[in-house]
Amino acid sequence: MRSSSSLASLARWCATHRALTVIAWLLATAVVTLAAASFPAREISAVRLPGTESQRVYDLLAEHVPAQNDAADQMVFHARGGTLSAPAARAGMARALARMRQHPRVARVSDPLAAGGRLSPDGRTALAEVTYRGGPLDEGDVAALREIQRAAFSVRTDTLQVEHGGLGGQIVRRSESGSSELVGLGAAAIVLLLTFGSLTAAGMPLLTAVFALAGTLGGITLLSHVVDTPDFAAQLASLIGIGVGIDYALFVVTRYRSELADGRERLDAIAVAADTAGRTVLLAGSTVIVALLGLLLLGLNFLEGVAVGAALAVALTMAGALTLLPALLATVGKRIEPRRRRRARAAGRPSSSEGVLWIRWSRAVQR
Q: Which domains are present in the chain?
């Protein structure tokens, strides 16, 4: 039986023209990435939450703290269980300020405890203004900013808290956030390998997710020139994209393996997988996209980039599962199964271990 739906026809075409499909994805990803490199992200820093305490604090800071530029940020000192005028806290702050001033990138560091310094009425929280030399801060200053941050954080104790704010703090945090995506991909790889028992099968969902992730990051950078986009939108969209991308590809790969086990030829198995599991992917992805775009109705500026970026991630992972994945499956063919299982089926006997773990698990759950 040949599936003749539009999804099956699309998957069959991509599988038949697998080289063209993969090249098209590579070119599209490269174009978006190069365009994003040419037009750096324009991320917003002004997030407004009308009626909230955080917004009132922000408004007070805007009123009493001079406007900041891209060559300045702040170090915040907070005393736990006492005040910053206590000898230990005062000495710790003095050491931190002195160490920051020694860095060649730092032009000036204000003393919060001096006359006119930024000290809270209760004496527990203070704001040190850090002004940099050499022009505005950007991602290329991350190494210097880490050194300055370490100098300030070196005086942290159980009674003295130090935090890095402003653009410099954002740049450092962004540089450290990429590890979350790598951890997510690594954990997913282990789970997929244990589930499928085949490196090839485990690699299909991961490869699809990586393509979609690359396109998402570039797309969000370009979209930031059109909609308000906070600095965390890319990380959030990436994690969502990894999750749904692996999930959607998993549906298709599992059905493809099932069809191969039933004796279908490669192209027919791909078409049936797209006609069945692909429909699930299309419905699930479309539902998630509509739900994410519903965030635009809330009227919060920082959610615009989050909603559009996450929706883009889901759309690309959905497209990858319906076009790129069939091409990859056609390339590997029956090698998607473990060699042991292929040999058992070629000899006309079922694999004794096939599905045993999950059969036992389902029976245990039903008890």
A: 6-44+178-358 (1.20.1640.10), 53-170 (3.30.70.1320)
Q: How far apart are CA 73 and CA 69, in angstroms?
A: 8
Whole-angstrom distance between the N-terminal and C-terminal Cα of the chain? 38
The span from the CA of 307 to the CA of 4, in Å, is 35
Residue 132: left if φ>0, alpha if ψ -120 to 50, beta else—which one?
beta
Cβ 32 vs Cβ 219: under 8 Å: yes
Q: Which of 263, 297, 219 is nearest to 41 (CA)?
A: 219
| H helix or E strand, kind and range, residue 305 | helix 301-319
Q: At what angle do helices 142-153 and 166-196 cross, to 10 degrees?
A: 100
Distance (Å, rounded) from C-alpha 233 to C-alpha 216?
Answer: 11
Checking DSSP bridges between strand 72-79 and strand 118-119, what pairing results, if any?
unpaired
pTM of the model: 0.69
Question: Phi-psi region for residue 46, left (φ > 0), alpha (ψ -120 to 50) or beta?
Answer: beta
How many degrees, rounded to 5, is the angle at CA 110 between CA 104 and CA 115?
155
Q: Report yes or no: 32 and 303 within 8 Å, Cβ to Cβ.
A: no
367 residues of the chain, pLDDT tens digit each: 455 689 999 999 999 999 999 999 999 999 999 998 888 777 665 566 666 777 777 677 666 655 455 577 889 999 988 899 899 999 999 999 999 999 999 999 999 888 878 888 898 999 999 988 877 777 678 888 999 999 999 999 989 999 998 878 887 877 766 566 677 777 778 877 777 777 888 888 888 888 998 999 899 989 888 888 887 788 888 888 888 888 898 899 889 988 988 888 989 999 999 999 999 999 999 999 999 999 888 877 778 889 999 999 999 999 999 999 999 999 988 878 766 655 555 555 555 445 566 678 788 888 7
